[in-house]
Each structure stands twice: as structure tokens, then as C-alpha cells.
Amino acid sequence: MLKKVVIMILILIVLFGLFSVYATTGEEILSSDQASELISIKEGTKAKLVEYEEKYGSAVYGLVAYILNALRIYSIPFCFVGIAIGSIFQYVIGIRKLDVRDKGLSLIITFVTILLICQVLPLVFAIVVMGWRG
């Protein structure tokens, strides 16, 4: 019952957020400073992508290397939050409930595995592409 209430509240929040975005379409959404900052971010990203393309010798390999690098960077906070949630399940809530303790241990193992894969995958890609391709 509580899950249904939480889901309904989240759906209402999302719908309200969408309505507020569509209600402001007549106004200027971005100021000139924000627009120039977005353009500079876009140009910086294109420059990095060109660097990766030059380094790996192909547009496809450069794009994959860029995506793997972004995955490597953004997986760290995501996995640390998952490990923290798993630790809370195991060491705080799991003191009284053994099934929750097992769930916490499973979460910790899962997120550590994901973290290791996301950190090692760009290295393996670089070794395979640069080593065997020449």
C-alpha cells in the first residue's frame, strides 16, 4: 500500500514538473550567458571527440573511447551511492532482519563489481585497439 502511494506521489511530481516546463514556453528559457556557456560546452566536447578520433585513428573507435571515458568518470559516484545504500541495509537495518542483511551484502557486491568493470573496461579497450591494431 505504501509503495503505491509513493509511486503515485512521484508520478504527480513528474507531471507537475512537465506542466511547469510547458507553461513557460512563451518566456525566454535561456539567458545569453547560459546559451554561450552551453555553446562552449558543446565546442569543448567536440574538441575532445576529435582528439579521441585522432588518437585512435577512427571515428568509431574515438567515439567508443569517449563514451567509455565518460562511463568511467560517472560510474564512480553512482557506485559509491549504491555501496552506501548496501552498507546501510547490511549494517544498520540488517542488525534486526537477516534477509535485509543478505540484500545489503548483495548490493555491495553488485556495485563493487560494476565499479570494477567500469574502471577496467576503458583500459582493456585501449590495450586491444592500440595493441592489436598497431
Helix content: over 70%
Strand content: under 5%
Task: Provide the gyration radius in Å.
Answer: 22 Å
Specify the biggest β-sheet: none
Tell me the domain tally: 1
Along the chain, the helix and strand elements come as HHHH
Structural class: mainly alpha
**Which blocks of ≥5 consecutive residues have pLDDT under 50?**
none
Overview of the molecule:
- The protein is mostly helical and 134 residues long.
- It has one domain.
- Helix content is 87%, strand content 0%.
- The protein is built from 4 helices and no strands.
- It has helices at 2-23, 32-56, 59-92, 98-133.
- Helix 3 packs antiparallel against helix 4.
- The longest helix is centred in the C-terminal third of the chain and has 36 residues, at 98-133.
- The chain starts with a helix and ends with a helix.
What characteristics describe this protein?
flat, 134 residues, mainly alpha, 4 helices
Secondary-structure map:
Layout: H1 2-23, H2 32-56, H3 59-92, H4 98-133
Summed up:
This protein is mainly α and 134 residues long.
